[in-house]
Amino acid sequence: MSHFSEATILKLLPYLQADQYWQSPIEGISIYMSQHPTTATTYMQMPSLCLVLQGEKTVQFGNQIMTYDQDRYMCYGMALPITAHITKASTDKPYIGLMMQLNQQLLLETMMQMQSESTSAPAAYFISALESPLANALQRLIDLVDRPADIAFMAPLLEREIYYLLMSSPQGNILKQLATQDSHSQQIAEATTWMQQHFSEAVEMETLATQVGMSISSFYQHFKRLTEMSPLQYQKSLRLLEARRKIKLRSANITHIASEVGYDSPSQFSREYKRYFEVSPKQDWLTAV
């Protein structure tokens, strides 16, 4: 049974267009609508709380496959490349998904006010049942959409309540670790942020490990545990996802794009691109709009 009423869906529908994100007037809140199931797409999911107001979605990290709907939500503590597709949607009952970006500073402030300890986190993401207190707070945040005069005052209060409920949940330790200075999770998050900003550059992982204050063995171990991939696989994902974005825009020719994202060899780029997306760069180029 959905935690979100039909009235909530009807309230949002006038703002939404099929297969597009709507950036709501509440900072950090965006809503996506689709009237049909979609094919699997790989993209970089930024740190966020993701929930389904109507429909169903499946996401995959490596060998992990998770499906969530109105009764469950996904939470991503750091930027992760995921493969996802909408599995339930129709014209009568379109898929409606909400994404709330996570603010690292607010996570830290909330944890400090909670004065709670955290232990090692098993991953940088989790799926969880959507309990009534969290659903109610999210409902009140959504209700601000048609009360714009209240957003500036009410939204920060509701966001803090939502962060508290996330961090108080059985899996909230994952977020606590990311907000804990010098924890392994925080160090790996710092590394992934640096890699996002410098993905096209050649980087020695030993240097990056030292930069975030870890030994190379600990760096590899905790990176794999938190992200389901090695640091080199993460860097490759960043490069290929950016390359695909540029190819879809036809911002330059394929060889130039390969060079822009850090590939010296066009043939290696083509091989890795096809292995990652199951389609060649040229095929994507030809179908780009």
Automatic annotation (TrEMBL):
<keyword id="KW-0805">Transcription regulation</keyword>
<feature type="domain" description="HTH araC/xylS-type">
    <location>
        <begin position="189"/>
        <end position="287"/>
    </location>
</feature>
<dbReference type="Pfam" id="PF06719">
    <property type="entry name" value="AraC_N"/>
</dbReference>
<dbReference type="InterPro" id="IPR009057">
    <property type="entry name" value="Homeodomain-like_sf"/>
</dbReference>
<protein>
    <submittedName>
        <fullName>Helix-turn-helix domain-containing protein</fullName>
    </submittedName>
</protein>
<dbReference type="InterPro" id="IPR018060">
    <property type="entry name" value="HTH_AraC"/>
</dbReference>
<dbReference type="GO" id="GO:0043565">
    <property type="term" value="F:sequence-specific DNA binding"/>
</dbReference>
<dbReference type="Pfam" id="PF12833">
    <property type="entry name" value="HTH_18"/>
</dbReference>
<dbReference type="GO" id="GO:0003700">
    <property type="term" value="F:DNA-binding transcription factor activity"/>
</dbReference>
<dbReference type="InterPro" id="IPR009594">
    <property type="entry name" value="Tscrpt_reg_HTH_AraC_N"/>
</dbReference>
<keyword id="KW-0804">Transcription</keyword>
